[in-house]
Amino acid sequence: MLVDSPPEEHAVTRAAPPTRRAIRAVGLLVSAAILVLVALASIAIGAKELSLVQVWHGLFQGSGTYGDVVVGERLSRTVLGLLAGAALGLSGAVLQALTRNPLADPGLLGINVGASAAVVTAIAYFGVTSLSGYVWFAFFGAAAVGALVWFLGGSRGATPVRLALAGTAISAALYGYLQAVMIMDDAALGKMRFWTVGSLASATDATITQVLPFLAAGTVLALLLARPLNALAMGEDTARALGAHLNRTRALSMLAATVLCGAATAACGPIVFVGLMVPHVVRSFTGPDLRWILPYATILSPVLLLGADVIGRIVARPAELQVGVVTAIIGGPVFILLVRRRRTAQL
């Protein structure tokens, strides 16, 4: 048990009426069905479109035809999109709960830029050229920055504001380092150009195998944190009265977000706005209860990521627009809208 909850549940975690719980459960099933359709579209749509019959044949009855080969190539890309999307959405939801800021995302604590800085270092100073090498450097870069933010934020005495300030300061410093290295090293600049925009195009079975254990562990931990984070949302004094372990909850939340976002960034590059948009939208119809927000974010974030990837293949045929570019184009206006709505609500 992460929190010793008393018999009487507080306002956030109090059981919803049966009708509302049923609606939320049905919504999860509908979301899962949408995810299946988007995943099929991700496999079927590309430079050469495939019919659903060809997709089915390639998935379950492959015999080496051209269509089967295409399905096999796109399957790894789709699976990575499913995993990375779920990881980014979960990490965003956890960080929004941890910082009590609905406009927070994994970039707030410098996790993305930590991974990017590690990859630049690997390319410029260690001669790493393969994606399998990037994965490990990016993951440990994200983990190192997450640990540093936790330490500078006060570790056991960390507060949402101190964590956000520490993350912002570290991000600014690392962005300067990134620019300096890439300006001085043309080779690093050329190799980083593709990775830094965020893409699923280089997905392989090996990449998925490398990041899967981290994504699985981070997902389980994040889902287990729903109730403790619900208590934390009530304020520190109330959470303590309810038996919540604040320091442990914050530390585990940082760990979950770092593992999830670090592994996703390592495999795909820094993809922005997924961890911001989806949890925020989900909260608008589930309410503040993280026992619903986290499962919904796990399902709907891959819908956004794979949908953006499909759009990128369609709008730039026969080439393609990288998924990180598409999510940025979609996310920019959405972020402005969210900020304006919050300002209006505060007037």
Characterise the protein shown here.
- This protein has 14 helices and no strands.
- It has helices at 18-44, 52-60, 66-99, 111-126, 131-152, 160-184, 186-196, 205-224, 226-232, 236-241, 246-268, 274-286, 290-315, 323-346.
- The chain is globular and about 65 Å long.
Write a concise synopsis of the structure shown.
This protein is mostly helical and 347 residues long. The chain has helices at 18-44, 52-60, 66-99, 111-126, 131-152, 160-184, 186-196, 205-224, 226-232, 236-241, 246-268, 274-286, 290-315, 323-346.
List the main descriptive attributes of the protein structure presented here.
347 residues; mainly alpha; 0% strand
How many DSSP E strands?
Answer: 0
Average pLDDT score: 82
**Separation of the first and last Cα atoms:** 41 Å
Q: How many H/I helical runs?
A: 14
Largest sheet: number of strands, sense, barrel closure: none
